[in-house]
Amino acid sequence: MTGASNRPSLPLYRHLVVHMKQISNGPLRVASIGQFGAEIDGLDLSESLTPKIVEQLNATLATFQFIVIRRQPLCAEHQLKLTRCFGDFEPGLSRRPAAHRVAGFPDLLYLSNEIGSTTADYGMGWHSDGLAYAKKPHGATILHCLACPPGTGGTLLADQYDAYARLPESVQRRIEGMYWYLPKVPHSEVPEGKALLQPMVRVHEVTGRKFVFCSPSANRIKGLSAQQSDEIFNEVRRFQVTNANVYCHNWEAEDTLIWENSTLLHSKASPVNFFDQGLRAMHRSATSGDFEAIEESISSSD
């Protein structure tokens, strides 16, 4: 789907972040969940969302990194309308195998643990959507729960602002300006004969805060040997996922979770056995992100 995004301009976006208290007094009720994350009440996802609501949703996501909306049914059409509030559709989803997608909705994936499902293992292991393989990693991911057994199959989110803040200052200085190579993985968008690089550290365009921007599957840093790269990756990864910076969302049917991929890693908390535990099924959509990888020729890479 093409067309102008509903996402607000950055000056307005920053204004809303600065005046976050005003949002709680508007149509939406925003409650902080903890160190990061917010739950929104007072929003009917079956209705058309006004520009003011869209502004508030984007400001809430930028400020809190993820949003929980509980116990609201969300049909495929309404989920895609919600997704468009955060940007343009991520084009890679429509190129996934037909068995992964919802019939008639190429920008919507169906993830389930049903017998024979090719998406049963989706989400296992720490990652950020698109960060390990895409020229432009995903912006926001929207996951809507159709069914999930209680007490299992949750989604974990790890705060990468916190990861950067906890790094020793010597490591912060060392990784500033470093770039890592995207590895060759399934669905890779690394061009033939080329290399794609992403920086280890980024500054959020709205909050102005620094965060670690490194895929757990990265295996080489530009200009360094494999051994030197491993030493730095191992140091950084000690802080990317800790008990102090992880939130677990325990799913109930009709929950919707929206998260910012740039400043968060995520993982399915545990596999769910269909026979022993029951059905876990989700609809997943995503927007295209803002951080495009740097392309260079293989001859100039290390």
Give the radius of gyration.
Answer: 19 Å
Largest sheet: 8 strands, mixed
What is the CA-CA span between the terminal residues? 38 Å
Share of helical residues: 10-25%
Strand elements, count: 16
Mean pLDDT: 88
> What's the helix count?
8
Q: What multimeric state do the chains show?
A: single chain
Shape: globular
Residue ranges: pLDDT <50 for 5 or more in a row?
A: 1-25
SSE ordering: HHEEHEHEEEEHHEEEEHEEEHEE
The percentage of residues in β strands lies in 25-35%
Protein structure class: alpha+beta
Topology:
Layout: H1 10-18, H2 20-24, E1 29-32, E2 38-41, H3 51-64, E3 66-69, H4 76-84, E4 101-102, E5 105-112, E6 138-147, E7 155-159, H5 160-166, H6 169-175, E8 179-181, E9 194-199, E10 201-203, E11 210-212, H7 226-240, E12 246-249, E13 256-260, E14 264-268, H8 274-277, E15 281-288, E16 294-297
Parallel strand pairs: 2-3
Antiparallel strand pairs: 1-2, 3-13, 4-5, 5-15, 6-13, 6-15, 7-12, 7-14, 8-9, 9-16, 10-11
Helix pairs in contact: 1-3
